[in-house]
Amino acid sequence: MAIHKLDQNLINKIAAGEVIERPASVVKELIENSLDANATKIFVEIREAGKSYIKVEDDGDGMTEEDAIFCIERHSTSKIKDINDLFKIKTLGFRGEALASIAAISKMRIITKTEDSLEGTQVHILNGKVLDKRTVGCNKGTIIEVQNLFYNTPARKKYLKDIPTELRHIVDVITRYSLSNPQVYFQLIHNNKLVFNAPSTNDTFNNIVNIYGRSVAKEMLPVNYSNGEIEVIGFVSKPALTRVDRSHQTFFVNGRYVQNIVISRALNDAYGTLLMVNRKPVAVLNIAINPVKIDVNVHPTKREIKFSNEKELYNTVFNAVKETLTKNNLTRSAIEEDAKLTPLGTVKAKMEVKHGYDLVRDEQSILDEMLKSDRPLKEIMEDEEDIMVEGILPKRKDFTVIGQLNKTYILIEDDDGLAIIDQHVAEERPNYEDFMRQFRHKDVPTQTLINPIVLELDPRNKIILESNLKLIHELGFDVDEFGDGSFILRAVPVIMGKEMKKEILLDIIDEISVLSKTISLEQLQEKVITRMACRASIMAGEELTKPQMIKIVDRLFRSAQPHTCPHGRPTMIRMSLKDLEKKFKRVI
Which residues constitute the domain of residue 319? Predict the structure, then answer.
């Protein structure tokens, strides 16, 4: 096949596809232009989640008539002039691609006026070409309207998601830039309904209150740190406030919203053992650094940037967060957690096995013999696979519950030896099976809360909840709008207990947000029920009575798949009498 040169129209559409992925990309690029133009008000109006109509209006510097026409030409910009400027970029935009890309795949109108001009300019653009230009009366600033996005690129248009998903992406863009620019008044209207309203303020904390609600804001701690080269300012959550993913972590570098694994890892590592496994803190961090030390020209949408010294970045963010936690006396728990991990041989005298309501020690017991090792019990068990069989359950009629070890494991004895059961996993399996059966039969028992819970959700999670209310109701949660953008929770599934915390429902919303993008509805339901079963189960560290232990083991043995929890972890580890006798040299 012969090589030929592409025509300019096709080149523009290909280039546009790199910059503009969805309606949220248009909103992002236009907001960044407004911020670069020193806007103090940015009002966004959309219809059908931006698929049919997007308008971004600001009170920024505006453009002259000449610039209003010239701005849609590819690589036309006022922000850089030569190659040296590329390595010290201080503005959010710089390539001169955004307006050209949007104009190439939509019907666009620009209305703009500078402070010195007596009249403004209106320009109509179609397929990247100016159709009409005229003088109009308007306020200082710029209005850009985008209609029928991707009208001439149907292949791209068919890949757009449903309205709630696209709207969620737009809300995500606006709320994040609002957090970085509290001095700017942001507003979003969708289908003539006010979705987000954040008047200008002099404090990021006020925007956190506006976006996430007071219940989240009161759990946030201020960060203010500098090592002389990099400055970190913002807020991080107390260890008690966490989410299932990183969607509530917002990072800015010189005012630009970025996604960066180094920053995220430094943030999480600073918490250390303060965080539960697989939980992520909430954070809003602004990082100021010399523009020479970063490269923002490595990604078409500028979501990712490159740092000249990632180690310095990691250490600075880590120290900034660690210092904040230390100042608020929140690192002591980490030390206490480390103490819990002391090798068993050094805490022999503290080890207790609980018989019902009594605590007893038996210095001659098998467990005490195991304690002679200085290695953690977990390592001993992993190394002794030759004498342990996972998932082989004792006969029900023969077992006896001995007691509880370390408030985490239930010990069982039978004619063949010893079984060590993880109390959380053991309860999680029957909880999952019971709840899945109730859900499939549409017979989830619920209990009315004596004190209904008011949920303050950020705009993104409101959209997720509203678009998934049917599933939430089927899961047994009676939740409805309560006015002023909040929701009220009146009833919960019986399986969740009488004192269910609202964080469980927030986790479910996060789970839906993350998983609904890639899996089927049936798979999503199963994942959500798995999480609910986990949160409804007894946790490690909870002290149990003997009747409670008997009930947990009995329910486990009655389940259809007693060998593992829904996540695939084994419910128990077995050690036969024969293998014990070999270890004690009683038999050869």
Answer: 207-328
CA distance 484 to 209: 14
Ordered DSSP codes for 156-188:
HHTT---HHHHHHHHHHHHHHHHHH-TTSEEEE
Place of tokens 């090592």: 227
- Tell me the three state secondary structure of residue 370: helix
The Cα 390–Cα 568 span in angstroms is 12
Q: Are residues 454 and 497 in the same domain?
A: yes
Give the C-alpha separation, 185 to 48, whole Å: 23
Same domain, 43 and 192: yes
* Same-domain check for residues 40 and 101: yes
In a domain, 3, yes or no: no
Cα dihedral 268, 270, 274, 278 in deg (nearest 10): 10
Same domain as 548, residue 527: yes
Q: What is the DSSP letter of 494?
A: G
Distance in angstroms (rounded) separating the CA atoms of residues 419 and 393? 8
Separation of alpha carbons 21 and 44, rounded Å: 18
CATH number at residue 190: 3.30.565.10
- Distance of alpha carbon 255 from alpha carbon 188, whole angstroms: 20
Please say whether the beta carbons of 475 and 493 come within 8 A: yes
Give the pLDDT band (50/70/90) at residue 218.
very high
What is the total count of domains within the chain? Answer: 3
Read out DSSP for 520-569? Answer: -HHHHHHHHHHHHHHHHSPPTT----HHHHHHHHHHHHHSS-TTB-TTS-
Sign of dihedral through CA atoms 547, 548, 549, 554? positive
**Encoded tokens for 253:** 């570098």
**Amino acid 5: pLDDT:** 60
How many whole angstroms from its chain centre is CA 340? 29
Beta carbons within 8 Å of 311's beta carbon, 6+ residues apart = none
Phi, psi dihedrals of residue 351, rounded to the nearest 5°: -70, 130
How far apart are alpha carbons 447 and 64 in whole angstroms? 64
**570 DSSP 8-state letter:** B
Cα separation, 161 vs 175, in Å, equals 20
Nearest to 478 by CA among 465, 493, 498, 463: 493
Separation between Cα atoms, residue 398 and residue 413, nearest integer Å: 8
To the nearest whole percent, how much of the chain has pLDDT over 90? 38
The predicted model scores a pTM of: 0.72
394-402 contact pairs (CB < 8 A, 24+): 394/419, 394/574, 396/557, 399/553, 401/546, 401/549, 401/550, 401/553, 402/353, 402/355
Query: Which CATH number belongs to the domain containing residue 440 in this structure?
Result: 3.30.1370.100
Q: Dihedral (C-alpha) 236, 238, 239, 243: value to the nearest 10 degrees? A: -60
Least confident of 85-94, 109-118, 205-214, 285-294: 85-94
Residue type, 206: N
Amino acid at residue number 511: E
CATH number of the CATH domain containing 320: 3.30.230.10
- Of 277, 308, 328, at which residue does a domain stop? 328
Residue that is last in its domain, among 290, 307, 328: 328
**Model pLDDT for residues 32-50, shown as the tens digit of each residue:** 999 999 999 999 999 999 9
